[in-house]
Specification:
single chain, 8-stranded antiparallel sheet, two-stranded antiparallel sheet, 8 helices, 27% helix, 21% strand
Length: 287
């Protein structure tokens, strides 16, 4: 799933390629992708793109005097830029293509989604806050006013495990399964540690790990073409998705805990005092 760093990079990429250009056609190919009907997608056509923004994991394309095209790529969605879009109309139900946006130059982008779970979402709205997922977002962890005191305030009284708390978009926007693993590894903390149990010193450590991990990932992704962002993300991960490999810090074997619909990875030596975590399907921890 694209998370804050990748969506930030896509925002930069689209700002460069879309801003100042006119949208001439928006074609929803998969019926499931479009989550709104008023205003219609045709309200975007004939309008100039004036800005591209990010809200957590949401991308917002703003048009001049018109609606916003807001996208959430979900777990298996992606954006593919094309300097020249194919001629003709795409055929519904054929392949992963979900939506196509064409510019007056002939360039544009496709939104695709692999797999059978269709959760890619596109909204056409007057205001991004009209999207329920945007409206409920917590603070952005890379915002200038997101300081250590703000993190401490968010975690105070939070009875969930750190892994679940970091992934809760209403608590902190933009962090998902992969970067929560990376942040906790950098902080040398167990994913099962209770969020409210952190001491001031531990909160400081977690804050530094959160900001550094995300900032480094954003810097690695900066300037990378949209089509190469997935590979860039994977190459920069130290524990997530690396079960059975040696920890790059201590050399211990990276372990995994499986859940009903996902998994987490961690290093026992770095994070749990050498003790492997019970590999149980505790999906409630990730809610």
């Amino acid at each position: 799933m694209p998370e804050l760093p990748e969506v930030e990079a896509l925002m930069d990429f689209l700002t460069e390629h879309l801003a100042g250009h006119e949208i001439v056609r928006v074609l929803p190919v998969a019926i499931s992708v479009l989550k709104t009907y008023d205003p219609p997608v045709t309200a975007l056509e004939g309008r100039e793109v004036v800005a591209v923004r990010r809200y957590g994991k949401f991308l917002d394309v703003e048009t001049d005097g018109g609606p916003h095209l807001v996208t959430h790529l979900a777990r298996a969605g992606w954006l593919h830029w094309k300097d020249r879009l194919p001629d003709g109309m795409p055929r519904p139900g054929k392949g992963p293509l979900a939506l196509r946006v064409a510019l007056e130059t002939g360039a544009g982008f496709d939104l695709t989604e692999a797999g059978t779970q269709k959760k890619l979402a596109v909204y056409v709205v007057h205001d991004p806050q009209d999207v329920p997922g945007v409206a409920r977002l917590g603070p952005d962890p890379l915002a200038h006013d997101f300081d250590e005191a703000r993190l401490a305030e968010l975690l105070a009284g939070e009875r969930r495990r750190l892994k679940g708390a970091l992934r809760d978009q209403s608590l902190i926007a933009g962090v998902g399964n992969a970067y929560s693993d990376e942040i906790l590894h950098a902080a040398r903390m167990s994913p099962f540690k209770l969020a409210a149990s952190l001491t001031p010193a531990e909160t400081h450590t977690l804050y530094e790990a959160l900001r550094t991990t995300l900032t480094d990932a954003v810097e690695r992704s900066h300037g990378v073409a949209a089509g190469r962002l997935k590979a860039e993300k994977k190459s920069g991960l130290r524990v997530h998705g690396r079960t059975g490999e040696p920890c790059p810090v201590c050399g211990d074997t990276i372990r995994e805990v499986s859940f009903s619909d996902s998994s987490l990875q961690y290093c026992p030596t770095c994070q749990t005092n050498g003790k492997p975590l019970a590999d149980r399907r505790l999906s409630r921890l990730l809610k």
